[in-house]
Amino acid sequence: MSTPAVRIHDRHSSPATFVEEVLQGLAACPKRIAPKYFYDERGSRLFDAICELPEYYLTRTEMAILESCAAEVARLAGSGSTLIELGSGASRKIRLLLETLRPRHYLGVDISREFLIESARRLAADYPWLEVHAACADFSQELEVPDATANGRRLAFFPGSTIGNFEPHEALTFLQRVRRLVQPDGALLIGVDLKKDPKILHAAYNDRQGITAAFNLNLFERLRRELGAELDPDGFRHRAFYNTLHGRIEMHLLSRRAQEVRILSRRFGFEAGESVHTESSYKYTVEEFRALARRAGLWPVRVWRDTEQLFSVHYLSAARTAAAAPGSG
Ligand code: AVJ
Predict the structure, then answer these.
(1) What torsion, rounded to 10 degrees, do the Cα atoms 239, 242, 246, 251 define?
(2) Residue, of 143 and 134, whose pLDDT is higher
(3) How many angstroms separate the alpha carbon of residue 151 from the centre of ligand 1?
(4) Do 309 and 196 contact (CB within 8 A), yes or no?
(5) In this structure, are residues 241 and 202 in contact, taking their beta carbons and an 8 Å threshold?
(6) Residues enclosing ligand 1, CB less than 6 A?
(7) Which residues sit opposite 8 in a β-bridge?
(8) pTM, whole model, 2 decimals?
(9) What's the CA-to-centroid distance between 129 and ligand 1, angstroms?
(10) Is residue 1's pLDDT more than 50?
């Protein structure tokens, strides 16, 4: 059997950026590295394993919601559209929508190139009627669609509560960018984790099997593998907690002792207990998120939640529609 056709479109995000950001982030106070760098191939696989964890309710809850709202999304979006999945990863969630939605084009956008292409190939093999495109891009930059998909109404899909990784002002910028990407008649379907009992949140980011810890620590493994960093991974441990004031989970790599890390002849001193902030995962109430979306010019049309109110999926329209009138959804 021939390899299914996937059209690949590369964007920026050169390896130089990784080095530069790491050196800059470790020189900063407090130290930090952006969570987008978790997702090399090993990191992407570890993240897939996280999604299967009993404590990590996000993935299965969102998938159940998507299953139950697919028909309504199809009705709102119409068929023959261009479906743009942002941060597509393993592209499992999109499968819940494809049969019902019947888009003409699918465009997967992700920073992890090999992983992206592999999943796009599988999609193309499983949905022969679909035109599959893959764009390797860092969506903290301006988003564009390849010319081949330029026609047709656009529905962006941003699942997994990845929006939570952005600081609120960055989330606003990102939503504005998505609005430019999908307009004039497009929409965004987005998964957003909800504020809830911190105990549930804490467990989700401190799983008993230590997969989240391995995922977090893989960032330092990457520094060793890719940048030749001199760094003792056993000298650091995973730390995750809910910051109530900011409404976010924070992940850190915590130094167990005073030590030094060397990368390309630069030295970074750590005190015992000092950490590198590797991720923030913001949680929103439905109203908080709607307010943010409106500020970006995206109009809340519908929201779906699970019965336990753990997770939300919002359908936001770039144009004010009858369905988006105040009080609906
Ligand atoms: C992919 C950003 C949604 O914040 O829950 C999972 C990443 N980090 N476990 C999240 C993650 C630790 C995840 N997001």
Answers:
(1) 20
(2) 134
(3) 33
(4) yes
(5) yes
(6) 50, 58, 160-162, 164-165, 205, 212, 279, 281
(7) 134
(8) 0.92
(9) 32
(10) no
Provide the pLDDT for residue 329.
42
Number of Cβ within a 10 Å radius of residue 98: 18
> Which tokens hold the place of 316?
């936001």
pLDDT single digits (tens) 101-117: 999 999 998 877 887 88
Q: Which atom of ligand 1 is nearest to the CA of 215?
A: 12
CA-to-CA distance for 86 and 109, rounded, in angstroms? Answer: 5
Beta carbons within 8 Å of 65's beta carbon, 6+ residues apart: 191, 304, 305, 306, 311, 312, 313
Nearest to 8 by CA among 118, 143, 156, 138: 118
Which comes out higher in pLDDT, residue 187 or 1? Answer: 187
Cβ atoms of 203 and 323 within 8 Å: the answer is no
| Cα distances (Å, whole numbers) of residue 19 to 47, 173, 221, 277 | 22, 25, 14, 17
Q: In whole angstroms, how far apart are CA 216 and each of 88, 205, 239, 327?
A: 20, 10, 9, 41
Q: How far is the CA of 280 from the centre of ligand 1 (A)?
A: 9
d(CA 316, CA 290): 9
Model pLDDT, residue 12: 56
DSSP 129-159: TSEEEEEE--TTS-----GGG-SS-EEEEE-
Q: Determine the residue type at 193.
A: D
DSSP SS3 for 20? helix
Distance CA 99, CA 278 (A): 37
